[in-house]
Amino acid sequence: MTSRLTRRQRRRVSQGLQYALFVAVVVAVALKADWGRLQNQFAQEDLARQLFPEIITTALRNTVVYTVSGFVFGLVLGLLVALMRLSSVAPYRWLATVYIELFRGLPALLIFIFVGVAVPLAFPGTAIPGGTYGKVALGLGLVAAAYMAETIRAGIQAVPRGQMEAARSLGFSHARAMVSVIIPQAFRIVIPPLTNELVLLFKDSSLVLFLGVTLTERELTKFGRDLASQTANSTPILVAGLCYLLVTVPLSLVVRRLEARTRKAG
After folding, report:
1. Which segments cross the bilayer (predicted)?
2. Predicted local confidence at residue 266, as pLDDT
3. Any residues with CB less than 8 A from the CB of 159 and at least 6 apart, and which?
């Protein structure tokens, strides 16, 4: 008569079966796939070499510039909206709430179309400073600010109330206490989610293609699509995807470390 399995043994057996099932599925997919056709369509080494250095000096550089400019604009606007959201003045709170709900609810693609089409129609003869770079910063920033505002607001509210009271007892005005004491502590709390937002913006920068960019203004996705169309091969798209990973994977690791550090500090 076999002995009854303990809870730990049952858990080990269950995990073993799950691993075995996972390996079986991977092997089945690997055996089923036509690796020769995939290599011919996505991994042409000679074609991949031809993408360099332009894919780095133009496409990746533009992607980074678009992302950083959108992040900076979104951070400044997000901080302003977060403070309005916490304001004791009701109209400020209403305006901030409407902005957050509006730009979090709309797809980023529609925001880019609005920036590229609606803004020039609404303000004829007025150009957005910076040309395409300014349009991208505005489009990405408007979307990012709505998310950053809620993140920053949560960070400000997470700072203990005693910090404000201590600052006021030292003679600080409310505004000075916010700038010198509360906001710096809030940013230390929200650095991980803000870094994660940077990763999302890096990928959302691919929407710049809807603004009608020139050859020198192309980012990674536009660059890869154009070259794939010209060569009738998808290798440029794969290389562009690897360039995205060169940035997003290290940033994701940074986010995990910052989150772990925040948990230890808490």
Report:
1. 12-31, 64-84, 105-124, 136-156, 177-195, 237-255
2. 59
3. 182, 185, 186, 189
Query: Are the beta carbons of 235 and 49 closer than 8 angstroms?
Result: no
Residue 98 lies in a domain: yes
Return the pLDDT at 265: 65
Helix ranges (DSSP H) in the chain: 7-32, 35-42, 45-50, 54, 61-85, 90-105, 108-113, 119-122, 131-158, 161-169, 174-177, 183-204, 220-231, 235-265
- pLDDT band for position 1 (cuts 50, 70, 90): very low
Answer yes or no: is pLDDT of 61 > 80.
yes
Contact by Cβ (8 Å): 205, 63: yes
pLDDT at position 123 is 82
48 in any annotated domain = no
Phi and psi (nearest 5°) for 45?
-60, -45
Model confidence at 192: pLDDT above 60: yes
CB 218 within 8 A of CB 59: yes
Whether 71 is in a domain gets the answer yes
Distances (CA, A) of 206 to 13, 59, 214, 242: 45, 10, 14, 14
Predicted TM-score of the model (pTM): 0.86
CA atoms within 13 A on the CB side of 29: 6
Instruction: With a cut of 70, say whether residue 153 has pLDDT above it.
Output: yes
What are the Cα distances from residue 96, in Å, to 81, 84, 87, 109, 137?
Answer: 5, 6, 10, 22, 20
- Domain count across the chain: 1
6 located within any domain: no
Domain containing 64: what range? Answer: 53-264
Q: Which amino acid is at 78?
A: G
